[in-house]
Amino acid sequence: MQHPAESSIETFQIPVRDTSLQADLVTPSHPVGLVIFAHGSGSSRLSRRNIAVARLLHASRLATLLFDLLTPLEDQVFSNRFDIELLTDRLVGAVEWAQQQPNLKGLPITLFGASTGAAAALQAAARLGHTISAVVSRGGRPDLAMNELAHVQTPTLLIVGERDEDVIDLNKNALEKLQCEGRIVIVPGATHLFEEPGALEQVAHHAAEWFLRHLPSLPGELRIH
User: Fold this and answer.
1) How many domains are there within the chain?
2) pLDDT digits (tens, 9 = 90+) for 30-51
């Protein structure tokens, strides 16, 4: 994976309760915010789709943290991949870790969740309140966090592929439950994995626009209106 030449690329072990999780942090020069990714079931920090989106976010001066929600041993237990409470705990732990890092301190934190990771992102946002500046869901399963949606205070963007009809319905139902600022974007011609040419680029564009719009204290020349 290529990054802008001015980016800092680091690998960490994030301590979360009684385990540690592998993480990759990319920090562009003069970052304006941090995007923490929560991948979908059966995936990891090496998700090529999330990496592709992250690479495009760096151009908007957004740092990105991709980490494994489960250890390799935990991932062998299929039910763990859908244990939203466990995944939420891991994501909250990653947010708390990021807040303690000297090079990230003071950066607004946003969340980008894919598939089941979107449910964890929404539950984490409900738990952390204004600690999280914005949430973006890609092909998400917000129905897995339905009981928490009314408690989400964070501006939330739901991105779904036009040909992912069942997930569109799930996201529309979730949007009605949200009490915060919310929006759904349907990417033309895209399926659940956004593998069509240009689909992930559209996801990254919408995500960057949403994140930048909702970052606090962002200089006027960078804020998207």
Assistant:
1) 1
2) 999 999 999 987 777 888 889 9
Higher pLDDT, 222 or 101: 101
- Asked, for residue 111, whether it belongs to a domain, the answer is yes
Residue 219 falls within a domain, yes or no? Answer: no
Contact call for residues 58 and 46 (beta carbons, < 8 A): no
Residue indicated by tokens 């564009």: 205
d(CA 75, CA 42): 7
More confident residue, 40 or 137: 137
Q: Where are the beta strands (DSSP E) in 43-165?
A: 62-67, 109-114, 132-138, 156-161
Calculate the CA 202 to chain-centre distance: 15
Per DSSP, 179 falls in state -
Determine the angle formed by the axes of helices 199-214 and 48-58, rounding to 10 degrees: 50
Residue 32: inside a domain, yes or no? yes
Note the pLDDT tens digit of each residue in 165-213: 999 999 999 999 999 999 999 999 999 999 999 999 999 999 999 999 9
Look up residue 193 and give its amino acid: L
- In 3D space, the residue among 219, 222, 215 whose CA is nearest the CA of residue 33 turns out to be 215
Strand 62-67 vs strand 33-38: parallel, antiparallel, or unpaired? Answer: parallel
CATH code, domain with 80: 3.40.50.1820
Compute the half-sphere exposure of residue 50: CA atoms within 13 Å on the CB side of its CA: 32
